[in-house]
Amino acid sequence: MTLWEKMKASPVLGGKEGVIGLAVLAAIIFVVLPLGVDIFRLNLIGKYLTYAFVAVGLVMLWGHGGILSLGQGIFFGLGGYAMAMFLKLEASDPLSTKIQSTPGIPDFMDWNQLTALPWFWEPFKSLPFTIFAVLTIPALFAYIIGYAMFKRRVGGVYFSIITQAIALILSILIVGQQGYTGGVNGMTDLRTMLGWDIRTDSAKYILYFVNGLLLFGAIFLSKYIMSSKFGMLLLAMRDKEERVRFSGYDVSNFKIFIFCLAAMMSAVGGAMFTLQVGFMSPSFVGIVPSIEMVIFCAVGGRASLIGAVYGTLLVNYGKTVFSETYPEMWLFLMGGLFISVVMFFPSGLAGIWDKYATKYGWFKDKAEPVKKPEVSIAEGEAQAVLTETTPETTLAAKTNDAVIKKATRKKAAPKQTEPAPAIDSNKMRGAEA
Amino acid sequence: MSNTDFVLAVEDLTVSFDGFKAVDSLTMYIDKNELRVLVGPNGAGKTTVLDLICGKTKSTAGSIKFNNTELTKLSEHEIVRSGVGRKFQNPSIYENLSVYQNLEVSYPKGRGVFGSLTFKRTKEVEDRVRKVAEDIMLTEFLDMESALLSHGQKQWLEIGMLLMQEPELLMLDEPVAGMSAKERDQTAELLNRICQNRSVIVIEHDMEFVKKIAHKVTVLHQGKILAEGPMEKVQADEKVIEVYLGH
Amino acid sequence: MFGYSMADIGNIVVMQGFSGLSMFTVLLLMALGLAIIFGQMGVINMAHGEFMTIGAYTTVLISKVAASYGFTNYYFVFAIAIAFLLAFAVGYFIEFIMIRHLYKRPLDTLLATWGLSLVMQQIFRSSFGAKEVSAELPEWMLGSFKPTPDIDIPINGVFVMVLAALVTFGVYMFMYKSRWGLRVRATVQNRTMAGAVGINTAKVDRVTFALGCGIAGIAGAAFTTIASTGPTTGTLYIVDSFMVVVFGGAASIVGTIASAFGIAQAQSILQFFMTSSMGKVSTLLVIVTILMMKPEGLFASKLRK
Predict the structure, then answer these.
(1) Is residue A65 part of a domain?
(2) ipTM confidence
(3) Residue B186 Cα, gap to closest chain C Cα (Å)
(4) Count of domains forming chain B
(5) How far apart are alpha carbons B118 and A85 in whole angstroms?
(6) pTM to 2 decimal places
């Protein structure tokens, strides 16, 4: 088997379409954009791509699991702040802070009459610890929230509201505790990482590529999970949680796991944000950024990992363009986007792409194997139904050698009487269009 | 409570909702390989009894022993893992998965988070799915998305999902609701087949159907047992006749 | 404790308690509207704060008009009525074009109404400017009682409290004693059956939603007596109001009152002893912790499932 055939046959990648989808995205991120735009714009795109980590996590959590967290900014922020603490300490060596009344501590601490480094800042002098903290602290925090709520079977809108409240609490706390956090301005003036100046163009290029690779890592990991039995169970839980529970599964553990994983991905995004942008502030933690990240995911197509990346890029590009030229229009647009995506395009860009890809027969696979089951969109509202890179492919891989990446999108089940929205007639081929 | 030879021993089981006793000091024993049918008017507490056994509702008092293991203190998934399967009143299947996947998800391996991440579709799983699909007469629909099945087929599929787990005790809440006469006959055969090596509790209103399957019948009324025994005996019981016909 | 004498603390608690009462009334009015929409219909209305802002701007505008004609002392009653009617009308319209299509998708409703709130905020900003504006308060509402020399009780606070009490009573009568309330509750409990016995469930939904929005409009009118209004005024209250509703147990009026009272008082009193942000953080933290342990809220009744 050639490499191409192997890739096509890989259930994780999602067959021919999945491979093409990933390849196109990789080409855009790693070739087209770096060659096509200057470093200032590329750095901006790198910033957008850090939000894509959050969006990818939300695809699993919300798109597949039906769990809408309005607090992903918490984890993005925790990751970003952990990295910022390390960089800030490095930028605050006694020599460069000698004009302060207490040299050797971050400037904002000095302004707030702190005379010594707080204890919880100490470990962030070490880069390995910082990386460890980025990966574990947000996940641990998510574990505590998830354990408390999912074990008590809090779900649906209650989960959303409570995560939103936690995001609010954290952002108020960060703003309020200036001496420890830099307050509303955040941690600014970050310069070097282990002596390497992150503000230079070459560093920005390198960080952009590292960020891209990490993002692909997150996408591959998510694809693997979605194609496993775990992914199938996630869909099953969204549909009939009781049935899953009475089939012998501890539903809460699955939810906790996926919540922690999404948190961890968001935190990596946050850390990369700090590195590329050179600061971190509470405006990336609170209610507004958290819910905006949901809309990035929804615009791309809440069930599509690659769609989430495009959605993030597109919305942020729009935001940048509009807030530069017509700032007052931006809120209208953003608000309109929320409303129209939910009401008219619940499967987002992926759904629209798919409709046309199917209509014009692009990427038709020759071997047309097993009928794909469909996956209804979210929270028990099975009106719009689309297909996904379901685990079937993984599992079928054992028996059918050539796999199998045809997803047919069908009408919702006949008994569903809810008038289906525009996307009803969409055909979705290969979830990750 | 002492240990018994029964598969299921329910003793003095009571549950009250804000003072209303939906099940009131119920005592009931189920033998190995027995097919028991629970009948009774609406609100008699039939479904609540199943809810209590499978842990969906927590009891106020009393004990439920399954192979001499106390179930009242276990959580739902632990009860299932100990060998109790439960079918709900309305067919509860994963409409967005294929019939094959519905059965596969119910296969009792890879039940933990990490187990499910590394779960592989082995020959064993494949064979088991095909065997069960044959039992529930859905072999030719394996690749179909389950939302497209008829109501009766969905009922069978849910029974099949339970069979995948090879439970020792199978509880079915109105398994023939919404089925055609032919499907009812097929279901009766199915039930008679599957109770060969397990105990089954069925809730059913259709007396013709009950006659075809029941080894013993328990009549519930207002949370209490009104009568228990073979179908003929129960049908002749005056109290039962009064409850069913008296008002 | 914190260097205050017991008598000081007593006075502080009374005065902060009273300033907490103003916040309590605004929160209560916001939460009553939300409790109807969320508790009865299960709809999360993230734009609820903006309906309050509608009421607030309406009151401010009417006060300006009244001031220019010298009616300042009497306008407030009309302002309340018009704030209610306007918010009601907008709510009615929004239900018709948006909410009714999303009843089966609660999480999507949440996102769509968030979008709505952004649009409404921008409309406010474009129409009234980004600067905060205040209503011309009637003279009788200014000033305060002094029951003891150390205690100051502002009259506007007393006024909004009476208003809140009346509205609460009205909502209670409407939901539990009127024919219409019966229809609402019937629709909530069994939509199909309610439809079958001849209740126009679509209309019930629309009016219920609009009513919740209308009450938010009254909250806005009350709000103008204690603070000035800006385009983003509503967003400051939305999370708190949701916390009140969830904490009080979504469908219970008594719970809503009690939790609005508790949350407003806790914030107000804590804010005196800590910084304002820490007061808010500690209050929210306590609520979230309690909700994690008792997710059904404090006043939810046990039901047979």
Answers:
(1) yes
(2) 0.89
(3) 32
(4) 1
(5) 37
(6) 0.87
